[in-house]
Amino acid sequence: MTKALTAIVTGSTSGIGLGIATAFAAQGVNLVLNGFGDRAEIDSIRAALEDKYGVKAVYDDADMTKPEEIRAMVARAERELGQIDVLVNNAGIQHVAPVEEFPEEKWNAILAINLSAAFHATKAVFAGMKSRKFGRIINIASAHGLVASPFKSAYVAAKHGVVGFTKAIALEGAEFGVTANAICPGYVKTPLVEKQIPDQAKARGMSEADVIQKVILEAQPTKQFVTVEQVGALAVFLTTAAAAQITGAALQIDGGWVAK
Ligand code: NAD
User: Which end of the chain is more exposed for a tag (fewer CB within 10 A), N or C?
Assistant: First the structure.
């Protein structure tokens, strides 16, 4: 029997990260869950993954703005799961404002969580992956890692940075069986996006259905949301032997958004 893989998925208490963690667990991958939220709820998610899929799932509350907490999470993961084969840098936040009004603390937080955290976590796992001649770094960037929208200066800068960081790491890992790829989703209906729909409907005097079609999904030619299951399946594929030669890629999963 081949040994089960182990993965850290940052920001996996909700949305895309939880979708990826669930898809990994379904493949027998042992996990470190991370992110904020209600402790009882997180523990029931963790226990449900263990019960349903027979994997080990540990939760670590590392704050991705704090390099020392990121390093401690990786050290704990190595202690409790043996080694880290897959790192998914997913935790992320957003803030929307014109650049001349953009709060400096939001700029700093977005850069720290969406970009610098990927560096700190990758730095902590990389030597082990290289020495074992196997590793998968999966960075959850965005369509905004490839194209821009107004009023999202920090997010677009951070996500373009993630795509560049991914390429550099891909080159460094290339001869050691370590791949690095960025997944670039379009709109995914996570709790974060869902929460905006009634607010936008109110602000614009539109129905929620119109907000979805004419505001949010205007960017996506398919006029459909990407699902967390679809992003999870792509992440799983990147861990397989079939994906061993995919590295340094920015993989769009965006209903055709950046093809326009
Ligand atoms: P979400 O808000 O549902 O989940 C974000 C996760 O990150 C949560 O688990 C949250 O607790 C965690 N998090 C936030 N700040 C943290 C911190 N300081 N330390 C540790 N964890 C922290 O959002 P989502 O939509 O699932 O987004 C996940 C990733 O996907 C982000 O990087 C986001 O930029 C990216 N993305 C989302 C979409 C979309 O449409 N939802 C599209 C493209 C890319």
Answer: N
